[in-house]
Amino acid sequence: MINQKQIKSLHQKKYREHYNLFIIEGVRSFISAVEANAKIKLIFYTIEFSKKNPWLKKKLYQIPNKIVSIEEIKKLSPVKSPSGILAICEIPEFNLLDKKKNLIYLDSLSDPGNLGTIIRTATWFGVSQIGYSKKSIDPFNPKVVRSAMGSHFNLSWLGELSLNDIKEYEIIGADHRGKSLEEVQPFNNKWALVMGNESHGISDNIKKAIKHLVSIPKIGEGESLNVGVSMGILLHELTK
Description:
Blueprint: H1 4-9, H2 13-19, E1 21-25, H3 27-35, E2 40-45, H4 47-52, H5 56-59, E3 65-67, H6 70-76, E4 85-90, E5 103-106, H7 112-124, E6 129-132, H8 142-148, E7 157-160, E8 170-180, E9 191-195, H9 204-207, E10 212-215, H10 227-238
Parallel strand pairs: 2-3, 5-6, 5-9, 6-7, 8-9, 8-10
Antiparallel strand pairs: 1-4, 2-4
């Protein structure tokens, strides 16, 4: 049985990797995990949560679970205001990277909310493979998982990649100094869309490998777009 000390240790990346487990917090993430037949090891929930969510008992079928107090779930949860349900899940076993399918590549992305948004947005547009550089935030960080709202389970591949791993793709980089996406011809080959760090953009070594540097035309005012918003706009055009 997983103990509380072990669960709290999953707030840190090294223990998630050690135990091959991560925390799912929140209703939508939990439901997505169940529907995807994720390997859920244990569920904690409060009486208050079960009263507000009568569907819960059906979802708990054959999954080990435990009723805890509000105080206990606050101690276990990585968020300040837990929803009332928390699950411990095995990190998914993804398929091998398929180089015949398009890819999102994240270069030193650091914000968990942005990564969660990117995972949700990528799957919305049918892009099910996401690679990230060594310096990027862990995709199983609890804040990323909460922000992604279950979209991890819609990915076919997620993992760390080097520049050498994506050299076979038609590499597209998002940068405000690039050509307007409207001016770029449709891509016949499978592409990798590179999104850079929130503050510093795409690193110099990655830029050298980029074949097409593209930007989003500005109509109004503002210095820049959020990286998740930018990727959504670019994917809307790239997946037409």
